Amino acid sequence: MFKFILAFFLCNFTYSTSEARPPAENYVIHCSGCHKPNGSGSPSNLVPDIRNIIGHFTKVSNGREYLIQVADISQAPLQNDEVAALMNWVLREFSSLQLTKEFKPYTEEEVKELRENRPADLHANRRKLLTSLQGKGIVLPDYVRP
Ligand code: HEC
User: Fold this and answer.
1) CA–CA gap between residue 73 and residue 143 (Å, rounded)
2) 83-93 pLDDT tens trace
3) To test the ligand 1 pocket, which listed residue (70, 89, 140, 145) has its Cβ within 8 A of the most ligand atoms?
4) Domains, the chain, ranges and CATH?
5) If you measure from the C-alpha of residue 67 to the centroid of ligand 1, how many angstroms do you get, rounded to a whole number?
6) pLDDT at 121 over 70
7) DSSP alpha helices (H): ranges in the chain?
8) Which pLDDT score is estimated for 3?
9) Does the predicted model carry a pTM greater than 0.85?
10) Pocket of ligand 1 (CB under 6 A)
11) CA of 32 to the centre of ligand 1 (A)
């Protein structure tokens, strides 16, 4: 009996440490406090709406990178593989219509590289992305920050 109980606890232990938490749960824990469960954000608190918007960033150069490097994602207390899975889920969940067919899911290695090499001024970077998107006829709604 003792051996059985021990085996039971060891199995549970292995499960809880080796299985990554599903992205939908990580969204609730790490993102929804600001972005809200439905992704609407809270513009009055300077939190942008991500619904039907963020997929557009994957259409211009540096946009894919920006989505990982934006402060709250890059600095979330998550492993690189969890960030990759979370962003693949977030893009499909909240902005699938804006994703192109060519979109390739983020990988752990890509996220690692992007988190280690973040540009200094992400807001300036975002403004450049908006200009590139406008060049393609895509105008995003007013952003919460100047
Ligand atoms: C503490 C509040 C907060 C949390 C938590 C948070 N965000 Fe954000 N998020 C923001 C703010 C504020 C911005 C605007 C960018 C900036 O000011 O840095 C933003 C920007 C973004 C953007 C870029 C949107 C755009 O239009 O440029 C995405 C995508 C995003 N967040 C997703 C997430 C995800 C996914 C998580 C969970 C890992 C998360 N955020 C957690 C506040 C938050």
Assistant:
1) 18
2) 999 999 999 99
3) 70
4) 23-135 (1.10.760.10)
5) 9
6) yes
7) 2-18, 23-30, 32-35, 63-69, 71-74, 80-95, 108-116, 122-135
8) 55
9) yes
10) 30-31, 33-35, 46-48, 50, 53-54, 67, 70-73, 76, 86, 90, 126, 145
11) 10
